[in-house]
Amino acid sequence: MAYDRYVAICHPLHYTVIMNQSICVQLAAISWSSSFLSSMVINVLTLSLPYCGPNVLNHFFCEVPSVLRLACTDTSFTELVVFIFSIIIVFIPFLLIVVSYARILLSVLRIRSASGRHKALSTCASHLTVVALFYGTAIFMYMRPQSKSSRAGGKIIAVFYTVITPMLNPLIYSLRNQDVKGALRRAIAKRRT
Known about the structure:
Layout (H helix, E strand, L loop, with lengths): L1 H9 L4 H4 L2 H27 L16 H5 L7 H34 L4 H29 L8 H24 L3 H15 L1
């Protein structure tokens, strides 16, 4: 989405040529295949560790950092692999999104009309909000050393990026729709009276 917004705002006349079906398929394929590879490697490494003692997770679901705590062997290699894949799957895309939005911001600042700037920024605001919520919590969860992580804090962060952010997505994206905004205003006005 960040690349789509970048092309739409920075190169609007070339949008249909640049964002063709082939590019969209390639972007989706790269995203899906890298995520699949990451999941497979991390899960194979995590599930091949020896586990002993009470195999009860102090978590809501089988999150890799929580499962690694149950292993009765050194997990530093698996933690390193998780960290490396976190850089590849989480941090690099986040940096690309930040760079694309920085370039969008520079392009928007060159727009002379205030309404044009407002329109350009409003098209990006919802995506940027979701990106900040999701990537902020994911980076905090997966890119810190296990020794620095608390169990309670990990649960809260996990709930935030697995429940709260997806729950907010429809609300954040639908508030760009004028009909939804109007209905929300009417509902709020009706409650006040």
